[in-house]
Amino acid sequence: MKRGLDVLQSGLLATVQDLGRPGHAALGVGVAGAADPDSFRLANRAVGNPEDAAAIEVTLGGLRVRSRGGVLAAVTGAPAPLTVDGRAAAPYSVFHVPDGAELRMGTPAAGLRSYLAVRGGIAVPPVLGSRSTDTLSGLGPAPLKPGDVLPVGPPPRGNPLLDVLPVAPPPASAIELRAIPGPRADWLVPGALDVLFGAPYEVTSEIDRVGMRLDGPRLEHAGRGELPSEGTVTGALQVPPSGLPVLFLADHPVTGGYPVIAVLASADIGRAAQARPGQRLRFRPQPAPALAGPHSRQERT
């Protein structure tokens, strides 16, 4: 019997994700990939997969799948309550879903996105070298819906590392995020960075895999006109004319002519991706890394 997962219910949004499709920016193709890459990698490591094996990203729970052939699974990220044929299973642990058994994922008490990894990975066909769903461009598999059948790949050689993963769940209170000023902070009025780093911002209900709109003190443009559209990165804080920043996430577009005042430290992107509407974010300045030489490319840390 070929192993797989029958999708019975997809919840608010469930997509297949891996670590994305880098290297295609010149074609206008974004990276996409898991919004919380650290939690995604952890789920794969738990079941012995390579870190980039495709898994399922679930927003606010609600996923129901039935196993074909039996699978070994782990759920990380937002700690959703789990049952296997009505019996409780624990997030942040490795558990078996027997052939014909139904795995149900409830609504997590904290965090936004959960990751379901199965041993062997989700083996949908890759597009441009990735199995990730890009909700902005439409590349990759469509968001999951009832009736979908997801094939599972052959088990890898590596063994699962741990039965239980000693990881703290995402915070339910304010989240502190480090950010590097720039690259277009000078297109805002003097003192705009002090405003950004001096007061909390609240996550609004306008949130998806593309980004999240924030509410808080307004950041005023300096009146220098409009920038040409520029490529940008996950974690960029763009300031539209409203003065209320938008935090770009995994499926983000180009800037659209609005300045980017700061960029999140790479290590904090996953924490930002777990923020829920109504949760507060506090940004803390982090100096940009020094260049190693005149031809070095500055990287985010």
Description:
Residues 293-301 have low confidence and may be disordered. With 301 residues, the protein is mostly beta strands. The chain has a seven-stranded mixed β-barrel. Strand 13 and strand 14 (211-215) form a beta hairpin. The chain has three helices and 18 strands.
How would you briefly describe this protein structure?
The protein has about 300 residues and is mainly beta.
Key traits:
seven-stranded mixed barrel; disordered C terminus; six-stranded antiparallel beta sheet; elongated; 301 residues; 3 helices; mainly beta
Average the pLDDT over all residues and give the rounded result. Answer: 92
Low-confidence spans: pLDDT under 50, at least 5 residues?
293-301
Name the helix and strand elements from N-terminus to C-terminus, one letter apiece.
EEHEEEEEEEEEEHEEEEEHE
Annotation field: number of helices: 3
**Percent helix range:** under 10%
Report the sheet-strand fraction.
Answer: 25-35%
Shape: elongated
Largest sheet: 7 strands, mixed, barrel
- The N- and C-terminal alpha carbons lie at a distance of 45 Å
Summarize the helices and strands and which ones pair or pack.
Elements: E1 4-10, E2 13-17, H1 37-46, E3 55-59, E4 63-68, E5 71-77, E6 82-84, E7 87-89, E8 94-97, E9 102-105, E10 113-118, E11 149-151, E12 175-181, H2 192-198, E13 201-207, E14 211-215, E15 236-238, E16 246-248, E17 260-264, H3 269-273, E18 280-285
Parallel strand pairs: 12-18
Antiparallel strand pairs: 1-4, 1-11, 2-3, 3-10, 4-9, 5-8, 5-10, 6-7, 6-9, 12-17, 13-14, 13-18, 14-16, 15-16, 15-17
